[in-house]
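A.,

Following up on our hallway conversation. Structure tokens first:
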């Protein structure tokens, strides 16, 4: 999350190639002297707010349909379309290559990332503008991933990642639209559901023989995982008293839409209707500062901790010497939990340098776009929302941002295993009953989904690409 070229940017979801080409003739092009560009923090903040609004605003979508609709980034101080990012030379030497089919748009995208990694900003801008003429967020999966990756590269050039993720409000409470899109993503891309279900299976088996169970979750999201858990628990006997503690920042706990207290009320109503002995507690604190005494653990209860798609947001040693990621794991170990479940996306966007990270992100998100294509029609508004609100945000953060601004810091399963064991955890067997139930669940979906079982982990993938891994520890 390159730092020298600090122009603010604005995303425009509409794109017309003819208007774009006419605008090129009338617009002032960027100076060749990039080093002379000045950086204005207030203007940056204002333009990034415009970027966030444009990226998330669907109001103009009815007028933006067509084969050439794509995301664009406009440089501050210029009017018109994305041609403001044209290089001083106007057109790229790569233009003729693409038109004659000598190289594909994918080839050009990877070449663009390469020249950008070498510091050739002018060459990268030429390729970005050429790619914008050939890709669309409305096309097939390969077109859509290219469109969003192109704009992530443009964002890296234009603002060098500075403040971009904050402008998109990804560190702030998510909007109602984003919460809705996340819910759809978890439902229509079943690898996420498989991960939740595996964690629930391990948690429910840990209930056996216990009178009181205390589940602690550091990212309950919309509570869907616990709706399923409560419904399953209602069909078992005997049933323990269940305490559920959710941790979230103070503002998030109180917000009326999707806030932790609101989710807790919904879960309590569900538990009451199922005749379950259930209590919900919220801890209003940033996760990094949570201490054992804030969690109100009690003698005689079995403690279970669930980390579902949360740990990757914690900064590690590559960001700060504080290493909040390992610090949190050690704190959880001090609770002496009976079980800890970890569900994470399986891709290295944490310590990998830019070019390697770019390749990793392309490979991973290509598979996710394929998953959506197998589940939702391409014209589906739900699908557009998921791709914009969830996938595009991740891609921009991973590609455009560095340092503390890059918070989508996923790791592969082997690295999580090393972290867990360094914190003092040992693998906890996931039973064949849980694995068998997941196999039956997978049969309800495309045969392109698969699973690989290890003693304490299950890997879920799309064809040959592992997407999500669920693991159990004690």
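Then the amino acids I'd put at each of the 474 positions:
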């Amino acid at each position: 999350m390159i730092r020298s070229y600090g122009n603010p940017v604005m995303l425009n979801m509409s794109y017309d190639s003819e208007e774009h080409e006419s605008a090129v003739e009338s617009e002032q092009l960027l100076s060749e002297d990039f080093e002379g560009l000045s950086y204005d923090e207030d203007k940056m903040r204002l333009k990034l707010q415009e970027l966030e609004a444009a990226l998330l605003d669907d109001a103009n979508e009815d007028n933006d349909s067509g084969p050439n609709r794509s995301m664009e980034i406009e440089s501050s101080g210029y009017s018109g379309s994305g041609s403001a990012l044209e290089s001083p030379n106007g057109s790229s030497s790569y233009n003729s290559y693409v038109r004659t089919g000598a190289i594909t748009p994918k080839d050009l995208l990877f070449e663009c990332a390469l020249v950008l990694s070498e510091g050739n900003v002018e060459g990268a801008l030429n390729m970005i503008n050429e790619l914008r003429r050939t890709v669309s967020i409305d096309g097939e999966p390969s077109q859509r991933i290219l469109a969003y990756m192109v704009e992530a590269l443009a964002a890296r050039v234009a603002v060098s990642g500075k403040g971009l993720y904050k402008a998109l409000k990804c560190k702030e409470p998510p909007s109602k639209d984003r919460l809705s899109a996340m819910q759809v993503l978890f439902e229509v891309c079943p690898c996420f559901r498989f991960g939740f279900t595996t964690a629930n299976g391990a948690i429910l088996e840990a209930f056996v023989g216990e009178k009181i169970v205390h589940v602690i979750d550091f990212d309950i999201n919309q509570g869907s995982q616990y709706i399923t858990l409560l419904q399953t628990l209602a069909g078992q006997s005997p049933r323990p008293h269940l305490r559920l503690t959710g941790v979230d920042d103070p503002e998030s706990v109180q917000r009326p839409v999707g806030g932790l207290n609101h989710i807790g009320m919904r879960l309590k109503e569900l538990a009451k209707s199922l005749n379950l002995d259930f209590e919900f507690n919220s801890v209003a604190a940033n996760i990094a500062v949570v201490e054992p005494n804030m969690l109100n653990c009690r003698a005689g209860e079995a403690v279970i901790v669930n980390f579902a798609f949360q740990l990757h947001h914690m900064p590690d040693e590559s960001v700060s010497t504080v290493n909040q990621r390992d610090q949190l794991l050690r704190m959880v170990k001090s609770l002496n939990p009976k079980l800890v479940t970890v569900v994470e996306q399986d891709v290295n966007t944490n310590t990998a340098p830019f070019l390697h990270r770019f390749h990793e992100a392309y490979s991973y998100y290509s598979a996710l776009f394929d998953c959506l294509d197998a589940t939702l029609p391409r014209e589906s508004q739900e699908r557009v929302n998921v791709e914009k609100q969830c996938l595009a945000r991740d891609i921009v953060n991973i590609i455009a941002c560095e340092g503390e601004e890059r918070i989508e810091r996923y790791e592969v399963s082997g690295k999580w295993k090393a972290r867990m064991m360094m914190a003092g955890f040992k693998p906890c067997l996931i039973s064949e009953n849980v694995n068998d139930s997941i196999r039956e669940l997978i049969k309800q979906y495309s045969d392109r989904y698969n699973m690989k079982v290890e003693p304490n982990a299950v890997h879920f993938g799309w064809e040959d690409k592992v997407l999500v891994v669920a693991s159990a520890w004690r």
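The two ends are 35 Å apart (CA to CA). Curious whether your intuition agrees with the design.

B.
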